[in-house]
């Protein structure tokens, strides 16, 4: 049975002033397992820091000096923050608006229509639902989602009718940007530009689009859109509808990410941390909600091929100085492990760490 979406909960109680107790995060404040999460929810984020901005046009410049400086900046952003904002990326604003509208259209379908896209298993090509994994959670997240595998095979819900075309076009363009960023990241690690592409078999790379809907919440300080977590895969691409709500952990503080209009956010996933042998780390981030406006975000998890075996690049493992820090694992197995667990920090990646 599909759990009720936040959207329908609000439609049934339009004057809701307090949230159901199953969405209240602070009730677990004394539960040790949640303690790190609770403590962080109550801190005030630091606003003074700005995440790095990467000018994509310099990374693709034919001027070798500009390009090598851009690669250095990209490497620094990966090492210091694990999150960066990309400008001048060449993905048309109309295209970003079109996919945003298509996702809004999907969330506006009736519960009955959405049922058809529920999905039962982790690797189902289309799944929609609420929270993250309601069957395991004691507290639910204030979030409805749609997850669609768009590569190597392209899937799309059949409703709304405009979805498929907008999605295909946006995913294709965003994949071109991601591909060039991964080449730059490869070089910044001292590897061949095509190392990641080949080692991860990106021709069959798994891309999953996740659209998130965070409706206004009557008690935003008690709820959580998404708790602190890192992403699976190599790089995540994120756009949003102009409403901020993303916070990133940096030097022990939560930092509000104020997104420049029409930029695309990228962050490092667990598998780039594994591949770089820990030089570039996946970063904890979370989504907070507000009581005024609906926030929407569209992420694409760009991962290795499902059958690819991911382990540290041999060139980055030196036995004395940088011993191998992670055991290898097939991407498909990791994906199923992460999607069927509770969302809890970097607990999935922690299982692969080698204590040296």
TrEMBL record:
<dbReference type="Pfam" id="PF03171">
    <property type="entry name" value="2OG-FeII_Oxy"/>
</dbReference>
<dbReference type="GO" id="GO:0031418">
    <property type="term" value="F:L-ascorbic acid binding"/>
</dbReference>
<comment type="similarity">
    <text>Belongs to the iron/ascorbate-dependent oxidoreductase family.</text>
</comment>
<keyword id="KW-0560">Oxidoreductase</keyword>
<protein>
    <recommendedName>
        <fullName>Fe2OG dioxygenase domain-containing protein</fullName>
    </recommendedName>
</protein>
<feature type="domain" description="Fe2OG dioxygenase">
    <location>
        <begin position="204"/>
        <end position="304"/>
    </location>
</feature>
<dbReference type="Pfam" id="PF14226">
    <property type="entry name" value="DIOX_N"/>
</dbReference>
<dbReference type="InterPro" id="IPR005123">
    <property type="entry name" value="Oxoglu/Fe-dep_dioxygenase_dom"/>
</dbReference>
<dbReference type="InterPro" id="IPR044861">
    <property type="entry name" value="IPNS-like_FE2OG_OXY"/>
</dbReference>
<dbReference type="InterPro" id="IPR027443">
    <property type="entry name" value="IPNS-like_sf"/>
</dbReference>
<dbReference type="InterPro" id="IPR026992">
    <property type="entry name" value="DIOX_N"/>
</dbReference>
<dbReference type="GO" id="GO:0046872">
    <property type="term" value="F:metal ion binding"/>
</dbReference>
<keyword id="KW-0847">Vitamin C</keyword>
<dbReference type="GO" id="GO:0016491">
    <property type="term" value="F:oxidoreductase activity"/>
</dbReference>
<keyword id="KW-0408">Iron</keyword>
<dbReference type="InterPro" id="IPR050295">
    <property type="entry name" value="Plant_2OG-oxidoreductases"/>
</dbReference>
<keyword id="KW-0479">Metal-binding</keyword>
């Amino acid at each position: 049975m599909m759990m009720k979406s936040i959207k329908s909960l609000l439609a049934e109680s339009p004057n809701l002033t307090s949230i159901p107790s199953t969405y209240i995060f602070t009730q677990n404040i004394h539960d040790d397992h949640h303690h790190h999460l609770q403590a962080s929810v109550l801190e005030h984020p630091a606003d003074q820091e700005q995440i790095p901005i990467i000018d994509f046009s310099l990374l693709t410049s034919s001027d070798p000096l500009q390009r090598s400086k851009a690669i250095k900046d990209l490497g620094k952003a990966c090492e210091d923050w694990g999150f960066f904002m990309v400008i001048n990326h060449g993905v048309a604003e109309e295209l970003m608006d079109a996919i945003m509208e298509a996702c809004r259209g999907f969330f506006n379908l009736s519960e009955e229509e959405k049922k058809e896209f529920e999905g039962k298993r982790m690797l189902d090509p289309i799944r929609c639902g609420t929270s993250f994994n309601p069957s395991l959670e004691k507290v639910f997240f204030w979030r409805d989602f749609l997850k669609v595998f768009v590569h190597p095979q392209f899937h799309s819900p059949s409703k709304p009718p405009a979805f498929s075309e907008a999605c295909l076009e946006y995913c294709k363009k965003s994949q071109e940007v991601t591909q060039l960023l991964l080449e730059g990241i490869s070089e910044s690690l001292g590897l061949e530009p095509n190392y990641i592409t080949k080692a991860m078999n990106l021709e069959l790379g798994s891309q999953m689009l996740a659209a998130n809907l965070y409706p206004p919440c009557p008690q935003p300080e008690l709820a959580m859109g998404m708790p602190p977590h890192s992403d699976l895969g190599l790089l995540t691409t994120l756009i949003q509808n102009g409403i901020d709500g993303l916070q990133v952990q940096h030097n022990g503080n939560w930092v509000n990410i104020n997104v420049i209009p029409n930029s695309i956010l990228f962050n490092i996933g667990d598998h780039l941390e594994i591949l770089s042998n820990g030089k570039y780390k996946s970063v904890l981030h979370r989504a907070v909600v507000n009581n005024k406006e609906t926030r929407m975000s569209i992420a694409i998890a760009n991962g290795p091929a499902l059958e690819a075996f991911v382990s540290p690049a041999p060139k980055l493992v030196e036995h004395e100085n940088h011993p191998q820090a992670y055991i290898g694992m097939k991407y498909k197995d990791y994906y199923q492990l992460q999607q069927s667990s509770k969302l809890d920090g970097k607990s999935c990646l922690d299982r692969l760490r080698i204590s040296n």
